[in-house]
Amino acid sequence: MPQVTIITPVHNAASWIKETLACVRGQTFTDWQHCLIDDGSSDASAELIHSAAQLDPRITFLRTPSNSGPAAARNLGIRHAQGRYLAFLDADDLWLPEKIERQLAWMRKTGQEFCYHDYRHLSVDGQQVGALVHGPELLDRKRLHTQRGIGSCLTVMIDRQAIPDFRFPEMAKGMPEDFLAWLQIINQGHFGHRLGEDLARYRLSPNSRSADKWLAAWRIWKIYSREASLSWPRALFWWGQYAWNALMLAKRARPTMPCSRSAPYLPIEGHPADHAVEHKPIHLAGSNSAYHHRRVWSMPAGNSRPRQLVAPEPRYFSSMYVERQAGRAASDVPSMSTDEQVEAISLRA
């Protein structure tokens, strides 16, 4: 039996499905089942999934009787899931190669039942990525209603042994069923926990439900005012925070950085705000129980905080504690190639 089942609802995604299938086949963790559910597609999506299933027995091809929406499609996949752990990947989104391995290892090590990780937005053509997006360290009822950064279903993994009856609420089409699903889990006493690693890409498609921010905000308000059992003052206050955070996230995480040719979907340039800062490279060492590797940092001129230059290989995406190597001079650092000059991210205090 596979350890992880990946659920992918598909509706007219022929343009993306090959890339999505490839990112799953490219996972460093290989003991998975991939349930792809065609939800009434009118393009070549079903044919592409069927062909892939013929070549890889780990792929399960399912179909809904009609276009029923992503919640019903995901629930059909869950009913056919064989793995203990559930992960969710929409047909136009992508995972980095170590997504399953890193997230599963962290859940097992910490005993978490409901986990999500960091991610970045990806342009529709896959040529640009945005700044790192992350949710709260702990996802409880208040934070679910006021904060953003989980990435819909893209980053979530659930332990079915701890949450055996998990399903997505099948509401009217267009309603954020993922939000209600997380609310149900939290109401059962299972809080979400953040894995601080960048492991996925959320494609900003103009045809997606999240593309219209005003409509998305209105749908969330309907949930707050009708479904979440909140008083009107609290619903309005929490919704205002949620809408503001959603607006700021969309602005801050907009894909503006070109992707590296040698490591697709990773940025090769810093955020535009960093371009005016004069950097002086130094070395720092980072490690955790799984990895020991060199990471390159930069020291801005003056008294600014140090800024991290993330290595371009996906295996070096771990969010780690770092300590400065004593006695290493800036002149000891070799010059970096264009592809190594990746996005600069502020070092948190």
Describe the structure.
- It is a single chain.
- The chain has 349 residues and is α+β, with helices and mostly antiparallel strands.
- 27% of the residues lie in helices and 23% in strands.
- It contains eight helices and 16 strands.
- It has helices at 17-25, 45-55, 70-79, 99-110, 141-146, 177-187, 213-227, 232-252, and strands at 4-10, 32-38, 59-63, 85-88, 94-95, 114-122, 128-129, 138-139, 157-159, 192-203, 257-258, 279-287, 292-300, 307-309, 322-324, 344-346.
- Strands 1, 2, 3, 4, 5, 6, 8, 9 and 10 form a nine-stranded mixed sheet that branches. Strands 15-12-13-14-16 form a five-stranded antiparallel sheet, with no helix packed on it. A two-stranded antiparallel sheet has the order 7-11.
- Helix 7 (213-227) runs antiparallel to helix 8 (232-252).
- The longest helix has 21 residues, at 232-252.
- It is globular.
- The protein starts with a strand and ends with a strand.
How large a portion of the residues is in β-strands, by DSSP E?
Answer: 15-25%
Assign an overall shape: globular
Based on helices, strands and strand pairing, what is the structural class? alpha+beta
* Biggest sheet details: 9 strands, mixed
C-alpha Rg, in Å?
21 Å
Oligomer: single chain
Which stretches are low in confidence, meaning pLDDT under 50 for 5 or more residues running? 269-349
Order of helices and strands: EHEHEHEEHEEEHEHEHHEEEEEE
Provide the helix percentage: 25-40%
Number of helices: 8
Number of strands: 16
**Terminal Cα span:** 43 Å
Rounded average pLDDT: 75
